[in-house]
Design brief:
A: mainly alpha, 3-stranded antiparallel sheet, 15 helices, B: 14 helices
Chain lengths: 385, 321
């Protein structure tokens, strides 16, 4: 049958290896070109804006330090999303699981630190508590999916709002254990109780750009990435999870215990996000941040999905992308003002993600262009747009 | 009697439920064509900001400005939907990740916030908004007055939409073709139905409805703009389509139920009823109830997911079917 458009899309029989690199790189370049159009349309110079962004992210004094602060939570939420999405379990609840990890991590830090426990012990306990908090919150959609076949997409997302309300409630609408109730400031504006010094996470200092701290949380995230890689590519569990993701029916015929896998993956994914929450408290805020305009406004959980998708769910790629997107976010926050409205960074991120998703097509299909006169010219189109 | 909590809750449930109703009707059309649109929240937010922008910038009579605002909000939603349709229909990208990507792109930390801040829309009341317009004598009728006659024009328009969509799906050739596309695109293709065109059109119209839903919030319910004003309404709308078994008339019932849940906490506070620690539960109720109803609908005897289009979420590629 004659195609109506002079373009047809055919499935590739072989997927050339170089495409796996060329497509993501091409997608990012394409995305920055499209974002440049958005900038011009809204009256900003694209070249100078990109330059400013790059400088504010990686070059200026102290910028790398801030980029690491922005990248650490994204590495956790990105890994959390990657752990679940790889199995086609769409856990978009990293946001709420992170809040829960922050709440449990802060509770343990306040309690054990306040009793004068040795610092390494307090910190280790906070890590475990953060993981458990996130795991518990992640298991709710996991259980509903495993036993009632309820879409984990909607339940995990709706639980984000519940966790956010709970977080605000602990600091603003109650006299909870997490809230600072003593002192003059506490009566003016509600804040979280500050962690005792033994519960504050250490970092590695480097003498670069006038002092950079590599936070403990960032190290933990790299460790989690290694663990995740090992689990998915070197163990039976990872193999079975992969089979289940690709074909649930094949998994059932092969005797893979589907329910148990769903629960394990959701628990694992939630625990990673929860670690991110504990790291927020221990590494950076040093108190539970219940302000709706604080932690909750930054949307680390949602950006983590962008990070995971751009890294194509490969744990090491996710860590690298988290660093780059962290730079973008840090630069966006540093430049925010009349000439650089908030939300612009989200727009650029979204366009990069669209380009990457669209670019996937080129790895799976070949695009043929038919020129007039019936002559067929086979070739790749630089971008599918 | 008209001030009793029950009447006020039902009346405000209808008002608060209207954005949910518009958005879920749009989602229903997209899903009936086989496309799972998880970008509703983002489309609503862009519709909300563009509708509000129109009202702030256009200097004309109230009626004209408001109608124009609705058209622009619907157009903005449809433009967002066009991105999604291109990704999932033409480029066959994963529908779940693409929809999420759209919500992240357009959402509270993305385009809608960029537009609102760039156009200086924060911290100002709307110049025009939708109000109840029927005669006071009708609005004061016992019970039915506030519930049926004390509403704004968007509520009545949404009722027209429900009837039109219900008739479209069950009584017209185009509607039946649409259902064929959602159930079995290969069979529809064999019948000579253009699967791609049907999917594009219904995803775009669905986006327009989501944009309308967003504008309902900024022009009728809370006539102002703040970043992320929908607060998850788009996700509740997606869940509503599942509760409604993909039927428009049931979307209406569900939307009003969840509208009433959303109205509960503000209404109790307006009556100076101290909620104490239960304020948390009152605010979280719409989300928790959505989860509870989803669980009931998706398990047990209704396991067949009555009404779910068979090809939902699957890209159609002619050679592969």
């Amino acid at each position: 049958m004659r195609p109506r458009l002079p373009v047809t899309i055919e499935q590739r029989l072989r997927r050339p290896r170089w495409l796996a690199v060329a497509v993501p790189v091409g997608s990012v370049i394409f995305a920055f070109l499209v974002a440049a159009l958005v900038l011009v349309a809204t009256g900003h110079g694209p070249v100078s804006t990109y330059r400013q962004l790059f400088d504010a992210a990686f070059v200026e004094k102290g910028s790398l330090d801030q980029t690491l602060i922005a990248a650490t939570p994204l590495a956790f939420t990105g890994l959390a999303a990657a752990a679940a999405f790889r199995m086609k379990l769409y856990n978009i609840g990293a946001e709420g699981q992170m809040y829960m990890g922050a709440i449990t991590g802060a509770a343990v830090g306040l309690y054990l630190g306040g009793r004068g426990g040795p610092s390494p012990f307090v910190i280790a306990a906070m890590v475990v508590a953060g993981g458990v908090g996130g795991m518990a919150w992640g298991l709710i959609p996991g259980i509903l999916r495993a036993f009632f076949r309820t879409s984990e997409i909607l339940t995990s997302l709706l639980l984000n709002y519940v966790a956010g309300l709970f977080l605000t409630y602990l600091i603003f609408d109650s006299e909870s254990y997490w809230r600072q109730t003593k002192g003059f400031n506490a009566t003016v504006f509600p804040t979280g109780k500050p962690l005792p010094p033994s519960a504050i996470w250490p970092g590695l200092s480097f003498n670069l750009q006038g002092g950079i701290v590599f936070p403990l949380g960032a190290g933990l995230a790299v460790l989690v990435a290694v663990l995740l890689w090992f689990l998915y590519s070197r163990t039976r569990f990872g193999f079975e999870a992969q089979v289940l993701g690709d074909s649930p029916r094949a998994a059932r015929y092969a005797g893979i215990r589907v329910r148990r896998k769903i629960l394990a993956v959701m628990a694992f994914s939630g625990a990673i996000a929860g670690l991110g929450g504990a790291s927020q408290v221990g590494d950076f805020s040093h108190a539970l941040d219940g302000d709706p305009n604080g932690l909750q406004l930054r949307g680390y959980g949602y950006t983590g999905i962008v990070v995971a998708a751009l890294g194509r769910y490969n744990p090491f790629a996710v860590v690298v992308i988290a660093f780059l997107i962290g730079g973008l976010q840090n630069a966006g926050a540093a430049l925010q003002g009349p000439s650089f409205p908030s939300g612009l960074v989200g727009v650029i991120q979204g366009i990069i993600l669209f380009a990457a998703l669209g670019g996937e097509l080129l790895t799976r299909y070949r695009i043929r262009i038919h020129l007039r006169g019936g002559r067929r010219v086979s070739g790749r189109v630089p971008e599918a747009a | 009697m008209n001030n009793s909590l029950a009447v006020v809750l039902i009346a405000s449930g209808v008002a608060y439920g209207t954005p949910l109703l518009f958005a879920s009707l749009g989602e229903l059309l997209a899903e009936r064509s086989g496309v799972l649109n998880l970008g509703v929240e983002g489309m609503m937010l862009v519709g909300a900001v563009m509708g509000f922008w129109t009202v702030e910038r256009v200097h004309a009579t109230t009626a004209f400005t408001l109608v124009l605002a609705l058209l622009i909000a619907a157009l903005a939603g449809a433009v967002m939907a066009a991105i999604l349709a291109f990704l999932v229909v033409t480029l066959r990208a994963n529908q779940i990740v693409s929809g999420l990507a759209l919500t992240i792109f357009a959402g509270a930390a993305g385009l809608s916030s960029y537009l609102g801040n760039n156009l200086n829309l924060a911290d100002r009341p709307a110049r025009h908004s939708f109000q109840a317009f029927l005669p006071n004598s009708m609005q004061n009728w016992p019970i039915v007055g506030p519930i049926l006659f004390g509403q704004n024009a968007l509520v009545y328009f949404s009722w027209v939409c429900v009837v039109v969509i219900a008739l479209y799906l069950s009584r017209t050739r185009l509607g039946l073709n649409l259902r064929a596309v959602g159930e079995s695109p290969a069979a529809a293709d064999t019948m000579g139905i253009n699967v791609t065109r049907y999917r594009y059109v219904h995803v775009l119209v669905g986006g327009a409805f989501a944009g309308l839903g967003g504008a309902t919030i900024t022009l009728a319910i809370t006539p102002q703009w703040v970043s992320g004003i929908t607060e998850g309404a788009g996700w509740i709308a997606i869940a509503l389509v599942i509760f409604a078994f993909w039927r428009p008339e049931l979307c209406l019932v569900g939307a009003y139920f969840f509208g009433a849940l959303q109205a509960l906490a503000p209404q109790l506070q307006a009556r100076n009823i101290s909620l104490g620690p239960t304020v948390l539960w009152a605010n979280a109720l719409p989300y928790l109830m959505t989860i509870a109803v989803l669980v009931v609908v998706s398990s047990g005897t209704t396991r067949r997911r009555l009404g779910a289009p068979a090809a939902l979420g699957v890209a159609y590629v002619r050679e592969e079917h």
